[in-house]
């Protein structure tokens, strides 16, 4: 059986790239719902529906385990997926999100450095859900969490603007100002795309702020998870077969795949996914 990776579009390839680098032996199916991206400014109800549809597609592609790489989808839908949808329709299959691994990694950092002020940036859906705040507070009750929604960043990045650009810097400064004022000591980049902005963000928040990006953390936590879930791990095929499904072959998809997958983007075949309503 396969490992599925789902994102609202192509940004999730930043996470997937880390899986290919750190866990290269497994068979993967990547699904990007780029016909309906962005999810980040949609309602939780719609995000839940889209997420169910995507999971249904991936389960039919023989995925035993699906990692939701999309923060907006994890934030708005994961709980309901795990508590309602899976037990009813796909008992035995597993769905993991992207928020828990990052919060666990923050906890490791916090126990070393004793920080108490953390910032989170993400889409409007992620920030409104307060999923990061809840999980950080649960793990580290004394830590103060400050959030900032940054809805303009995904369009900037998808336009290829992620460094050395005055307009981008202005927008970033504007968004990050509320967090730097709070004297944050660590900052979670809680969106698939933001990893590409790490250097620009670091310049603004200063070198002392620890920035957590998601790809490598998610890959390491998945490795840990698989080493504990022996029964599940045994079911996974290890033939390095990777399939890419998108819901739209729109004019930019090849450029975006290259942007996010970097060296892993050569010689890949994309198939069009037909997603059923559920
Ligand atoms: N993948 C989304 C996330 O990580 C960003 C793009 C979108 O808004 O759909 O939140």
From TrEMBL:
InterPro entries: Asp/Glu/hydantoin_racemase, Asp/Glu_race, Asp/Glu_racemase_AS_1, Glu_race. Substrate binds at residues 7-8, 39-40, 71-72, 192-193. The gene is murI. GO terms for molecular function: glutamate racemase activity. It is an enzyme of class 5 (isomerase). Pathway: Cell wall biogenesis; peptidoglycan biosynthesis. The keyword Cell wall biogenesis/degradation applies. Belongs to the aspartate/glutamate racemases family. Its EC number is 5.1.1.3. This is Glutamate racemase. It catalyses: L-glutamate = D-glutamate. GO terms for biological process: cell wall organization; peptidoglycan biosynthetic process; regulation of cell shape. The active site is at 70 (proton donor/acceptor), 191 (proton donor/acceptor). Keywords: Cell shape, Cell wall biogenesis/degradation, Isomerase, Peptidoglycan synthesis. Provides the (R)-glutamate required for cell wall biosynthesis.
